[in-house]
Design goal:
Keywords: Cell outer membrane, Membrane, Receptor, Signal, TonB box, Transmembrane, Transmembrane beta strand, Transport. The protein is about 10% helix and about 60% strand. It has a 22-stranded antiparallel beta barrel. It is mainly beta. The protein has a single domain, classed as Maltoporin, Chain A (Beta Barrel), CATH 2.40.170.20. It starts with a helix and ends with a strand.
C-alpha cells in the first residue's frame, strides 16, 4: 500500500504537470492566449454540456438535461490520453474500475463486482451487445475497434435495464463510431514501442454518390509480454490482434437514413494457466499455452422520420464469436432485431416504445476443466417510456418499464422513475429509482468449471462449480441523486450519489456427487453499496484544459444463511473486490499551434482481487492488491496539417505494477512501464 508520504508526492506531481508546469512552459515559449486550431480546446464548456447523447433513453438528448449518471469520453479525449485500447480509455470515466490483468486481459466494472468477467456491466458497440451469453461479461481483448473511428463513448453508471434490458445492472457502456461521411479520405497509422511493439492501421473513406458514403479499414497490434509478480520471470502473455471492416451510411430523400457496417477479427496470444487441473497425476500443473479468438459481425440500421418529433427505427445484427483455449472451447451465433418508435403526444409527453428479439446459438466443446452445454436460446422484450414535461425544459418526469422473457428465468420486469429539474441554465438536479436484473449465463444454468482435483491428503479431491436450473435472476434496486453546475463557461461540475440494494446474488451450496463435490450455483447473498462520483472540468486559459474525477464506494453483503464457509467467503469477496477511492487528473495543453502536451495521473485504492482458486480454498492465494498511482504523459507534434506524431510514456511511476491479482487462471502479473511512438498521416 502506498504510504501517506508517497501518496502526497503523487498528488503533487500531478498538480505540477497539470498546472504549474503548463503555465510556466507556456510563458517560456511565448504562447498565445488566443484561440487555437484545436476544436476541443476552442469549444467552451457550455457547448460541451450540450453534446448530444443517445444511450440513456435510446434517443437524442443533451448531456446537461439527462437524468442519469452519464459521462462522455470524446474522440479528442481518446486522442490526447495516449490510450491504445478501449479498455484503457474507459479509465477516464468516474466510477469505472479499470484494472489490467495481463497484456490482453482487463477487469472493468462499474460500482463494484470487478472481475475478468464482470457480469453486471453491459457493453455495446453502436448498439450491438458484446456481452458474452456463454460466460457472462465481456472479453475485452476481442473489442479492438479502431480508436480513430470512435466518435464518443457514452458511459452510464447505474442501472439501464429499462432501456437496454437484462445485465445492465451497474452500468452501460456504448461505444459509438463515426459516420462514414465524417471519415472521408485516407488515414495511415504506424507505431512501435517497448510494450506496444508494433501497431498499424489503414482506413479509407469514399463517397458512393451524393447521398451515400463508405469507409474501409484494417488494423493490427502486437504487444510484448509482462512479468510474473512472484518470480520476476516472463509472464508469457504476449498478444496480437488483427481486424478489418467497413461502414456505409446514406439518406433516401429527406426522411430516411440507413447504415450498414461489419467487422472481422482474429485475436491471438500466449498465456500461462495456473492452476491447470488434470484428471490424473500430477493433477495440477502450470501450463504455458495460447488462445485463439475470432469472429465477425454485420449490422444494419434504418430510420424514418415522420415529422420533427416522430420517427421509427429498426436495427438488426448478426454476430459470431469463437474462442479456443485449453480451458474451454466456446462459440456462439447471435441474431438480434429491435424496433423503436418515438412520438410526441400534445405538448408535454415524449413517448418511446420498442420491441426486440434475440436468437442465440451456442456450440461448445467440453474439456476436463469446463463444460458449457450447447443450446439455443431466444429472448423477447418490450419497453415503454414517457417523458412528461411538467414545465417545458425545466421539470421533466420520466417513467417506464421493460418486459423481458428469457429461457432461464421467464418473465422479468425492469421499471424506472426519473425526475429532472433545471431551475436555470447553470443548474440541474436529477433523481431516479430503477430496478434491474442480471439473468443467468449458460455456466450458471447448466455448466461446470473444475475448481480442484487434488486427492487426499493433499486436498479435497475433485471439486467443481455446477450450474442449476433453479438459479434465479440477481436483482438490484438503485436510488440515485445528481447535480450538474456550470457557473461559468470555463468550469463545470457533475455529482452523482447512489445507494443500491442487491438481492439473490450468487453463492455456492456443496452437493456430493459421483465425481466428488459439486458447488452448485445458488441465490443466497444480499446487501447494498453506496457512494459518490464527481467529474469536474476547468479551462483557465483557451490553450489549457483540466479534467478531474473522483469516486467513493462502500459495500456490505451478507449470506441469507450460512451452510458452508463459502457463503461468508463470497460475501466478504463482494465487499472487498473494488477500491474505496479512485481519482484521476488530466491536463491538455497547447504549447504552440502545433505542439501539445498531455498528462494523466490516476490513483486506485487498495482492494482484494479474487479467483476460483481462492474460493475453492485450494492453493490459497493472497488476493490483496496495493493502492497504485499511474502517470501517463505524451507529446504530440503536428509538423503539417495532415500529419501527427506522438511520443508517449505509460505507467511512468512504476517499473512494474500489479493491478489485479490472479484473476481466473492467470498468475499474478505485473504490467510493465511502456514507451511508444506513433505517426498518423491523413491523405
Amino acid at each position: 500500500m502506498l504510504t501517506n508520504r508517497r501518496y502526497a508526492r503523487m498528488i503533487r506531481m500531478g498538480l505540477v504537470l497539470s498546472g504549474f508546469l503548463s503555465l510556466e512552459v507556456s510563458a517560456a515559449l511565448g504562447m498565445s492566449t488566443g484561440p487555437t486550431d484545436n476544436l476541443y480546446l476552442d469549444m467552451d464548456l457550455s457547448q460541451l454540456m450540450q453534446v448530444t447523447i443517445t444511450s440513456v433513453s435510446k434517443k437524442p438528448q443533451t448531456l446537461g438535461n439527462t437524468p442519469a449518471a452519464v459521462f462522455v469520453i470524446s474522440q479528442e479525449d481518446i486522442r490526447r490520453s495516449g490510450a491504445t485500447s478501449i479498455a484503457e480509455a474507459l479509465a477516464m470515466a468516474p466510477g469505472i474500475q479499470v484494472s489490467q490483468i495481463s497484456s490482453s486481459k482487463w477487469s472493468i466494472s462499474s460500482r463494484g463486482f470487478s472481475g475478468f468477467i464482470s457480469n453486471k456491466l453491459l457493453v455495446l458497440i453502436d448498439g450491438r451487445s458484446v456481452y458474452s451469453p456463454v460466460y457472462s461479461g465481456v472479453f475485452w481483448d476481442a473489442q479492438t475497434t479502431m480508436l480513430e473511428d470512435i466518435d464518443r463513448i457514452e458511459v452510464i453508471r447505474g442501472p439501464g435495464g429499462t432501456i437496454w434490458g437484462a445485465n445492465a445492472v451497474n452500468g452501460v457502456i456504448n461505444i459509438i463510431t463515426k459516420k462514414a461521411q465524417d471519415t472521408q479520405g485516407g488515414l495511415l497509422r504506424a507505431g512501435f514501442g517497448t510494450q506496444e511493439r508494433l501497431q498499424g492501421a489503414v482506413r479509407y473513406g469514399t463517397k458512393i454518390n451524393e447521398d451515400a458514403f463508405a469507409r474501409f479499414y484494417a488494423m493490427g497490434n502486437d504487444r510484448e509480454s509482462n512479468r510474473l509478480k512472484e518470480s520476476g520471470l516472463d509472464a508469457g502473455d504476449s498478444w496480437n490482434t488483427m481486424q478489418t471492416g467497413f461502414r456505409a451510411d446514406g439518406v433516401v430523400g429527406t426522411r430516411n437514413e440507413w447504415t450498414l457496417q461489419g467487422d472481422l477479427f482474429r485475436n491471438q496470444g500466449d498465456q500461462i494457466l495456473f492452476p491447470y487441473w488434470l484428471s490424473t497425476a500430477p493433477y495440477v500443473v502450470s501450463k504455458h499455452t495460447d488462445f485463439d479468438d475470432n469472429g465477425g459481425n454485420l449490422l444494419a440500421g434504418w430510420q424514418h422520420r415522420f415529422g420533427e418529433h416522430e420517427r421509427l427505427s429498426l436495427q438488426m445484427y448478426y454476430d459470431y464469436a469463437a474462442r479456443d483455449e485449453d480451458f474451454y472451447n466456446i462459440s456462439y451465433r447471435t441474431f438480434d432485431a429491435a424496433v423503436q418508435y418515438e412520438t410526441r403526444l400534445g405538448a408535454r409527453h415524449d413517448i418511446t416504445a420498442g420491441a426486440g428479439f434475440r436468437h442465440i446459438r451456442g456450440d461448445n466443446e467440453a474439456t476436463f476443466q469446463s463444460y458449457f452445454p450447447s443450446r439455443t436460446d431466444e429472448v423477447f422484450s418490450l419497453f415503454l417510456q414517457d417523458a412528461f414535461h411538467l414545465i417545458p425544459d425545466r421539470l421533466i418526469i420520466t417513467v417506464g418499464s421493460k418486459y423481458e422473457h428469457t429461457p432461464y428465468t421467464g418473465s422479468e420486469w425492469q421499471p424506472s422513475g426519473k425526475l429532472l429539474w433545471a431551475p436555470s441554465e447553470h443548474h440541474s438536479y436529477w433523481a431516479s429509482i430503477v430496478r434491474a436484473v442480471r439473468t443467468p449465463s449458460v455456466l450458471e444454468d447448466g455448466g461446470t468449471v473444475t475448481f480442484s482435483n487434488l486427492p487426499p491428503p493433499y486436498g479435497m479431491g475433485y471439486v467443481a462449480s455446477s450450474g442449476s436450473e433453479d438459479f434465479a435472476a440477481e436483482t438490484a434496486l438503485s436510488y440515485e441523486l445528481g447535480y450538474r453546475w456550470q457557473p461559468y463557461q470555463s468550469f463545470s461540475f457533475d455529482l452523482a450519489l447512489f445507494y443500491t440494494e442487491y438481492d439473490d446474488l450468487y453463492t455456492f451450496r456443496p452437493r456430493p456427487s459421483e465425481r466428488g463435490l459439486d458447488l452448485v450455483f445458488t441465490n443466497g447473498v444480499a446487501g447494498h453499496n453506496y457512494g459518490a462520483e464527481v467529474a469536474m472540468t476547468w479551462k483557465p486559459k483557451s490553450w489549457l484544459s483540466l479534467a478531474g474525477t473522483y469516486s467513493y464506494l462502500q459495500s456490505s453483503y451478507k449470506p441469507d444463511t450460512i451452510v458452508s464457509p463459502l457463503d461468508q467467503n463470497i460475501s466478504d469477496l463482494f465487499e472487498k473486490m473494488q477500491p474505496m477511492h479512485q481519482f484521476g487528473l488530466r491536463s491538455s495543453l497547447d504549447l504552440t499551434h502545433n505542439w501539445q502536451l498531455n498528462a494523466w495521473l490516476r490513483y486506485t485504492d487498495s482492494f482484494t482481487g479474487g479467483n476460483v482458486t481462492s474460493i475453492s480454498a485450494e492453493l490459497p492465494v493472497d488476493g490483496s492488491v496495493d493502492g497504485s498511482a499511474d502517470l501517463s504523459v505524451n507529446l504530440i507534434w503536428k509538423p503539417r496539417p495532415d500529419m501527427e506524431c506522438m511520443l508517449a510514456g505509460q505507467n511512468l511511476l512504476n517499473s512494474g505494477q500489479l493491478y489485479y491479482n490472479s484473476e481466473h487462471l492467470t498468475p499474478p502479473t505485473e504490467i510493465k512501464r511502456g514507451v511508444f511512438g506513433k505517426i498518423i498521416w491523413r491523405f
